[in-house]
Amino acid sequence: MSMEDYDFLFKIVLIGNAGVGKTCLVRRFTQGLFPPGQGATIGVDFMIKTVEINGEKVKLQIWDTAGQERFRSITQSYYRSANALILTYDITCEESFRCLPEWLREIEQYASNKLTVLGNKIDLADKREVSQQRAAEFSEAQDMYYLETSAKESDNARQNTLENNVSSPLPGEGKSISYLTCCNFN
Amino acid sequence: MALTTWALGPALRLCAAGPVCSWEMLHVAGAGVCGCCGALRPRYKRLVDNIFPEDPEDGLVKTNMEKLTFYALSAPEKLDRIGAYLSERLIRDVSRHRYGYVCIAMEALDQLLMACHCQSINLFVESFLKMVAKLLESEKPNLQILGTNSFVKFANIEEDTPSYHRSYDFFVSRFSEMCHSSHDDLDIRTKIRMSGIKGLQGVVRKTVNDELQANIWDPQHMDKIVPSLLFNLQHVEESESRSPSPLQATEKEKESPTELAERCLRELLGRAAYGNIKNAIKPVLIHLDNHSLWEPKIFATCCFRIIMYSIQPQHSHLVIQQLLGHLDANSKSAATVRAGIVEVLSEAAVIAASGSVGPTVLEVFNTLLRQLRLSIDYALTGSYDCGAGVSTKIIKEHEERMFQEAVIKTIGSFASTLPTYQQSEVMVFIMNKVPLPSTQQSIEAGKAGENRNRLTQIMLLKSLLQVSVGFQCSNMLTALPSVFLDRLLSAALMEDAEIRLFVLEILISFIDRHGNRQKFSTISTISDISVLKLKVDKCSRQDTVFMKKHGQQLYRHIYLICKEESNVQAHYEALYSMLMLISIELANEEVMVDLIRLVLAVQEIAQINEDNLTAYNRCALFALGAAYLNLISQLTTVPTFCQHIHEVIEMRQKEAPYLLPEDVFVERPRLSKSLDRLGPEVFFWQSKISEVLGGSGYNSDRLSTPYVPQLTDEDRLSKRKSIGETISLQVEVESRNSPEREQRAPAEEITYETLKKAIDSVAVEEQERERRRQVVEKFQKAPFEEIAAHCGARATLLQSKLNQIFEITIRPPPSPSGTITAAYGQPQNHSIPVYEMKFPDLCVY
Ligand SMILES: Nc1nc2c(ncn2[C@@H]2O[C@H](COP(=O)(O)OP(=O)(O)O)[C@@H](O)[C@H]2O)c(=O)[nH]1
Ligand SMILES: [Mg+2]
Fold first, then answer.
1. pLDDT confidence of B262, banded at 50, 70, 90?
2. Which residues in chain A have their CB less than 8 angstroms from residue B291's CB?
3. Residue B830 scores a pLDDT above 70
4. Pair A68, B182: CB distance under 8 Å
5. How many beta carbons lie within 10 A of that of residue B497, not counting itself?
6. Looking at A171-180, B250-259, B325-334, B631-640, which range is the least confident one?
7. What pLDDT is recorded for position B353?
């Protein structure tokens, strides 16, 4: 009899400018809905989701952080223990993409694993400001995974990106620690 | 083993039925009823299952819970299994949304935990924490709160066996997150936030004293806990605005996140050992930075008040040092931010017990003075990087000014926490930083340099004044070392009226040890001194020695300051206070006599007016003399003296009210142009005073000798100093001349060589005295223009030569300025040597 309700535990931290859609992404992923106008995240937000990957139960602890500068110190303290860091930007907002290097500097000292760059809001294709190619090049140059999605219309992402993100965990120590090393590009 | 546990079940049942039972009974009874339970599942599972009612609404089945408890107590080795099974059930119930059962499981866990605080609890804690974690993972506020409450109960249990591998990371993360809850429903949000705070408090309690456990003081935890508490502390207005009635307010307050966060923060800080302070305070500083809370500084001040009152007092200097470090780190932040930090420092310094500054007293002041200088530079250059390049930030001069004021206030706060000997050390330290013309401190040339020097002088003197206000010295002699006094007084002779006033104020602070100064704040000729209710002690021996040593120096400076044309009412008031305070604090009979002579000499300044003073200056000096003599005569209680003074004052009231303070020191002074045609009856007469006081046993010989500022015997011991003051005086006289008057005496001629020649020609003592008299006379008779003409040159070359000389000199004028001026006006002329200067060899290199 196992006391655990999971085989692996991952801590995922989402970062990126305010308004790029981090909270919506997490909601879509954990609750399957696109939340109507919720306020900006204060400090951090926490969600849990257990997914089954290759027959193994993977519990995901998702820490959704506030993008605002004033919460930077508290959000920073969550990067440290993260198994995966997801840098989010809004494909319709050039500025949010241009801030990525700044975010990289911010997490430099904590990030030990390969990062993931996530472009959100692809449902707004006509307002796109950041081309896929550009984002892909940037990510590659920094040795990061890269994918795009929409929290609003998650139709093309059969499984949510967050889940893809952890599709192939390495066995870690014991049951609770593992690494996120691979990412499925659909 | 297994048998015993199996057997215990029925025994417990029996026991629950009967009113009394003992363990022997149980064991005996248990042995008898062994085989009667035919359940397939292990007993502990059945016992656990039995505590859950059919309908979760009914709540925990109490009797069965008791059975489970007894079972657990008697078979502690089963605790881990019970825990595991309960947790399994709970996890299942959570996922099936059977929250009633979840609550029951938690209640059971709590009860088991409370009942079993023995070593075996260790076995149980793991599953317990897993269940709490499970509840905390939930999105449901109720489950989060339920989990937190259980955790808090657990946190209050003292475990006697350490657990090496327990990790509270998740709890800290989640509780901190809960502290930031943004739940739509305000009530629920408040509850979640409070739960978060309580949870953090629990983690702290649980781990703080356990060195084997995850170190709660590590930045990874502190960086979450501290900002989360501050975030709640910060939102005080929010909860206040929700409580309309006062009764409700108090109730609410007890339950507010703000209050709770404060308590938790206090507890945390109170437990911080020396090595942990830094990690606990750093996140506070960063939080205040990030949330722009240094300005307005109310919250920052509030935080540090909490901090200073909560930490163990012996650690307070660490906080101070961190704040100072933070100030330095913010050197290039907006002035408002720096001002906020400094104000917080000031508050913190006051709260901290004396000695809060810790081992590095001067370092503290050094930092503050450095910040002061930086700010002066910022304000002058308008840029954060002095001189170099463009600055992106706009520097607001008035904000820098406010910052400077804040620094000065803080210097005062710090100093006030120090013991006297350190205060005096600090004052010497500050004084040594004041750029004076007579020292080697780099006096920068040019307009900008002048400006900077002046501002630096003013700011440092202000700081000094701030320190001196809180300075209580019973012994002036040890508290005010000569070097300090010399430097301070030399600052008084600078042209700058503001600086002069500061020096006077500082001196007044020192001298006034009985809080009398306010009583002299307005100059008047009151007829009854007793209304002032002066507090006076007998002048101590040390004070007498002090005046013996420094009296002449003080008189000379008072005299010279009186001659300044740029004096305004504030100066005269300060001079008056100073004279009065010396009289009541430091005066024996001899000092009294000298003061009267001094004041009469001041009257003469106004009367003869060789300095070409304005009518206002002259009236003010007359009025000052009247006010002083009026009070001093009453202090001596010599009736004839009082009478003479009174007569003159009455005469002035009739004939020349513009010579009395009541007419001069008002918004629109009534002055007279005809000051040179005054009758003898409106003056105080030295002959008369020495006669009446001599009759009462005062030294009439001395009294009848006019006061002439001069070198005292003590001054004579270090005559090399006089060159410094000579020159600074010369510079002074020069700088007061308007350019048109400048002529003759090319700067090149006044070289060090000429000075040296003059020095070499110093005559013997006898001649010296005679000549001095002559020159004094000459000077007194010569019109101002003539004297001024002698000292026209003010080329920078001279300045730099003089500066060179300043470096070897220590301090200011021993002699009547006129004398020296005259002598220096004709430097080549050896027939008028520099009499009173005998330069020791070391001076002539
Ligand atoms: N069209 C579109 N809007 C989105 C999407 N994701 C988020 N938004 C909107 O973007 C805004 C910010 O979202 P939020 O999740 O709060 O951003 P966060 O600050 O990064 O957490 C909200 O108005 C969302 O409705 C998306 O995929 N498509
Ligand atoms: Mg958000």
1. very high
2. 70
3. no
4. no
5. 16
6. A171-180
7. 62
- Which residue carries 């984002």 as its tokens? A135
**B447-452: Cβ within 8 A, 24+ apart:** B448/B380, B451/B380, B452/B376, B452/B377, B452/B380
Structure tokens at B704: 């009848």
* Nearest protein Cα to ligand 1, atom 14: A21
- Reference B206, options B172, B233, B230, B181; nearest CA is B172
- How many angstroms separate the Cα of B584 from the Cα of each of B24, B578, B588, B589, B682? 91, 10, 9, 11, 27
Instruction: Please choose, from the candidates A54, A16, A11, the residue with its C-alpha nearest in 3D space to the C-alpha of residue A130.
Output: A16
Q: Which residue would you say has higher pLDDT here, A56 or B802?
A: A56
Probe target for ligand 1 pocket from A14, A20, A24, with the most ligand atoms within 8 Å of CB:
A24
Q: What is the pLDDT of residue B242?
A: 46
Res A165: pLDDT: 53
Q: Which residue has the higher pLDDT, B785 or B495?
A: B495
The rounded Cα B684 to chain-centroid distance in angstroms is 47
Q: Between chains, do A76 and B223 touch, taking CB under 8 Å as contact?
A: yes
Determine the pLDDT at residue B241. Answer: 46
> Can you give the pTM of this predicted structure?
0.74
Q: How far is CA B760 from CA A100, B162, B711, B818, B821, in A?
A: 78, 87, 20, 21, 18
- Between the CA of A89 and the centroid of ligand 2 the distance, in Å, is 12
Element (H, E) at A12: strand A8-15
Give the DSSP letter string of B146-185.
HHHHHHHHHHTSPPSS--SS---HHHHHHHHHHHT---SS
Query: How sure is the predictor about B739, in pLDDT bands with cuts at 50, 70 and 90?
Result: very low
Question: Is pLDDT of A90 > 90?
Answer: yes
ipTM of the complex: 0.88
Instruction: Name the H helices within B23-115.
Output: 23-32, 43-50, 62-74, 79-95, 99-115
Nearest CA to B44 among B99, B89, B86? Answer: B86
A116: nearest Cα among A140, A87, A80: A87
CA distances from residue B171 to A9, B151, B178, B333 in whole angstroms, order as listed: 15, 9, 10, 36
Tally DSSP H helices, then E strands, for chain B. Answer: 40, 0
B736: number of Cβ within 10 Å: 17
Query: What is the whole-number distance in angstroms between the Cα of residue A38 and the centre of ligand 1?
Result: 9
Q: For residues B434-451, give the mean pLDDT.
A: 66
Helix (H, G, I), strand (E, B) or coil at B52: coil
Higher pLDDT, B672 or B533: B533
Residue B818 near residue B780 (C-beta atoms within 8 A): yes
Q: Within 10 Å of residue B98's Cβ, how many Cβ atoms? A: 17
Which tokens is B51 given?
Answer: 């505590």
Looking at A36-45, B438-447, B528-537, B721-730, which range is the least confident one?
Answer: B721-730
d(C-alpha B400, C-alpha B373), whole Å: 11
- Report the amino acid identity of residue B16: A
Structure-block tokens of residue B692 = 């009446």
Q: How far apart are the first and last CA of chain A?
A: 36
> Among residues A75, A148, A78, A142, which one has the least CA distance to residue A115?
A142
CA distances from A153 to A37, A38, A161, B2, B765 (A): 16, 17, 13, 59, 107
Q: Is the pLDDT of residue B389 over 70?
A: no
The string of pLDDT tens digits covering residues B702-722 is 888 899 886 544 344 333 333
DSSP A78-125: HHTT-SEEEEEEETT-HHHHHTHHHHHHHHTTT--S--EEEEE-GGGG
Q: From CA B28, how far away is CA B5, in angstroms rounded?
A: 13
Partner A contacted by B214 (CB < 8 A):
no
Q: Nearest residue CA, atom 2 of ligand 1?
A: A121
Q: Would the CB of A83 count as within 6 Å of ligand 1?
A: no
Identify the band that residue B823 occupies on the pLDDT scale cut at 50, 70 and 90.
very low
